[in-house]
Amino acid sequence: WGLLLLTVALGMTAATRCPAPCVCDNLRAHVLCLNGSLTAIPDTIPELTKKLDLRGNSFMVIPVGAFLATPYLTHLDLQRCKVERLEEGAFRGLGRLVYLNLASNGIALLYQESLDGLSSLQQLILEGNRIEEIQPGAFGHLGSLTVLDLRANALVYLPDMVFQGLQVLRWLRLSHNALHVLGSEAFAALPALRRLSLDHNELQALPGEALARLDGATWLDLGHNPITYVAEEALAMASLRHLFLDHASLQDVAPDAFARSPQLRVLDLRENQLQGLPPLAGAGGLARVSLDGNPLLCSCLLRPFHKWLARARVQAEGACAAPPALRGRSLDSLKPPEMRCGRLRPPPSPITPSEQPRAASSRQCPQRCVCSPDFHHGSCENRDLREIPRDFPGDTRLLDLRRNPFSTVPPDAFPGLKELVSLHLQSCSIRVLHPGALRGLESLVYLYLTDNHLSTLVAAAFEGASHLAYLDLGHNAFTSVPAGAFQLLPNLISLHLQHNAIGELAEGDLAGARGLRWLYLAGNAIKHIAPAALAPTKMLEKLQLEGNHLSEVPTAALRGLPALSELKLSRNPIKHMGHSVFLPVASSLQHLYLDNMGLEWISPHAFTGLGPKIRSLYLESNKMSNIPNMSNFTGLEILNLRDVPFHCDCQLLPLHRWINKLNLHVGATCGSPAEARGLKVKLSTTFLTCPGWGRGQAGETNPNKNKAASKPSKKKRSGKSPTRDFSKSRA
């Protein structure tokens, strides 16, 4: 009885401590603080809380020990909280946590102690961030993790031992990144892994050496990678049963490509460029091969494969593309005599990926620095060095030189580092990057020059580093984009120029950046973007312009960007938004940020062309009293209308009806008239006297069309929202 009374007393105490913007369910120990205006983790959350849902807030940074007051948490949801940084030790004290969701934030880098303290964590969701690099050791404290989701980030390279410590991980999801370099030991520390998703990346060859470490994996997805050839014994995975190589660029497969994967049962080769296959020696357990969507040439050259299918009793899916007499015929319907040879040109020999010789790795290390032979790392962080040290081991792949007062980077500053992939030069007081500074860094993918004093750059500074994909120049002293500086960087994917003093984006500034996908220009002083300024970046997917001085949407500059899916214009002084301002990107745009602009008026036709593709729309903290018809935005997952002073009269009735049909928390409140001020738009009674009110409530199919007045209906509103409910929250 004493224990029971103590539990009740603790529950009552917890109930009195529920933070004002949140909802606390003390019986189930759940706390919800959804889609609010929180900028810091509340410190009055009941101590006994087990499930904490903080989706849709604005934390930016998760500080050290942010959850020390809630040690009993088992589930923590931080989706869409604009988190950009996890401080080392942010989750200390959460030893009971089993589920952590950090999806759809802006996290760019995972440090070694970012996830410290999560010893019981089983699921970690990091999907939809902008993680460019993971330092080995970042997951070292997650010994209970079974699912790690890193989909839709910005990863290009996986270093050796990057997943060390994940002894029980069963599913690793790396889809929809830009991976094209995998360390040979990248997966070496994953003894329990059963499923690996590497689809939708930039792998040009099957990473056989890295995959050979996965003895227990049964499911491997490599679809949607530009792999052209599978070489002899390319895949040595003893337990593999399902292999997906669909939608790649395969032109040929070696006869014994899968001879060292004896358990393989299903091989998916759909939508490639295969004219045929040889008999697959050693794949004795194979049951099904999918070849649909390949230009199969059903001539005598295909007879050996066809005969092997019958002998091995393998089911084949696919149809002939040639010769004309057999076009459309399924493989299993063919008879050997039908597969004839006329005067055929032999198919071109496939070009196999060349083996790059490994640089000899010596074990020397500069004085006052630390070199790790296991991780191939070198570090001289914060050693007060005045000159860049030399004589690092030749197999160094990550070099950390942060917080040293170098001032300049001279020519040939990094000799003998042909395997270097990641170079950290943040906070080094660098004013000049000399021509030839990076010469010889032929494998360099990541270059971090944040928090320096750079005001200009020349293209010759990047000579010899043509594989550079990520360049971070944030927090420097640029007053303009260094025109032409990126001419020698054909593989540049991500360019960070945020928090400089750039006043204009001019034509020619981005010349040569033809592969650019993500451009970060937040926190500058940009007033104007020339119509042709973005013309070289036809593959651009993300454009972040928040916190600048734009007074209008740069519609003309958006023309010619057919892949743009995210546009951030938050915190720009745009007061009026005219007709069709997003029309040039209407066919691709999915995420639109228009919050905190002081926006006073939006044209009824401002969103012309936008529709079902829009997944998230942020309009919070503006000054307009009405918004355009958005009834065709049927794909919305996030809509934020908080802190907008809506005038809740009959003109707003279409919005009221539409919000009532959404299964989303939108936060819309009335700013006027006086009797409705502060009420939720969906609950305001000011609409009861509007013409057409009753018919709308009775199930009117078009929420934006006012019909003749009818008797008010007491029938309860019914009908499900046309949008998908990802938040599971009530509006």
UniProtKB/TrEMBL annotation:
Record protein name field: Chondroadherin-like protein
GO-annotated cellular components: plasma membrane
* Family to which this protein belongs: Belongs to the small leucine-rich proteoglycan (SLRP) family. SLRP class IV subfamily.
Chief location bin: secreted
**What is the name of the gene encoding this protein?**
Chadl
Pfam short name (any one): LRRCT
Q: Give the signal peptide as a residue range, or say none if absent.
A: 1-15
Q: Where is this region: Disordered?
A: 326-360, 694-731
- Which residue range or ranges hold the LRRCT domain? 294-342, 645-691
User: Which PROSITE patterns does the record associate with it?
Assistant: LRR
Which residues lie in Basic and acidic residues bias regions?
A: 329-341, 722-731
Under the heading Gene3D superfamilies, the entry gives: Ribonuclease Inhibitor
Compositional bias annotation for Low complexity: 702-711
> Taking every annotated instance into account, which residue ranges of this chain make up the domain LRRNT?
17-51, 364-398
Q: What does this protein do?
A: Potential negative modulator of chondrocyte differentiation. Inhibits collagen fibrillogenesis in vitro. May influence chondrocyte's differentiation by acting on its cellular collagenous microenvironment.
Where is it located? Answer: Secreted, Extracellular space, Extracellular matrix
